[in-house]
Specification:
The chain is 42% helix and 14% strand. It is α+β, with helices and mostly antiparallel strands. The structure holds iron/sulfur cluster.
Length: 160
């Protein structure tokens, strides 16, 4: 779980303890492994999760109030921030376009949808940048660095 979320095991453990203190999760013994514990959402935790999924509540409600151009800018900045955090070794396990081996920034020749996804073969714009893509595959370090550099150019470099 910690690797998938890009946090340390200690940080995840602290978060789980906090959630437990709120009564949002419950632990039970794992019948397959005496050293392990199973975690479940409690009824209170399920109610809290349902509340957070409501589109007009929480962060999602705030984001939905943005104009599309502002949302695209936010997604672009998020990719740049995550990319920089990954470069500095502060984050791992995040499935963003910029860290993906299929990402081809500014490669489509279409100003409205300038990037290409090598997995789908489709052009896409900043508004469709993904931060947790199921098809993501981690780019090799040199490709990641080149993509990050190309993506951060406001005026894209000519394609190589
Ligand atoms: S596979 Fe997903 S993460 Fe990778 S470039 Fe395509 S949309 Fe982005």
């Amino acid at each position: 779980m910690a690797e998938r979320l890009g946090v340390t095991a200690a940080s995840l453990s602290d978060t789980l303890k906090t959630m437990e203190a709120h009564g949002w999760i419950e632990r039970s013994p794992d019948p397959r492994d005496a050293r392990a514990q199973l975690l479940h959402l409690s009824p209170k935790g399920r109610a809290q999760a349902a509340l957070k999924r409501q589109s007009d509540r929480g962060a999602l409600g705030l984001v939905q109030a943005l104009e599309q151009a502002d949302l695209a800018a936010l997604l672009r900045c998020t990719q740049l921030l995550v990319g920089e955090a990954q470069r500095q070794g502060l984050a791992t396990g995040l499935r963003t376009c910029v860290g993906c081996r299929f990402f081809r920034p500014f490669a489509s020749g279409d100003a409205a949808r300038p990037h290409l996804c090598g997995f789908t073969g489709q052009p896409f714009g900043d508004l469709e940048l993904r931060v947790d893509c199921a098809e993501h595959e981690r780019a090799e370090p040199q490709d990641f660095a080149a993509n990050r550099e190309r993506f951060r150019q406001r005026i894209p470099l000519p394609a190589e």
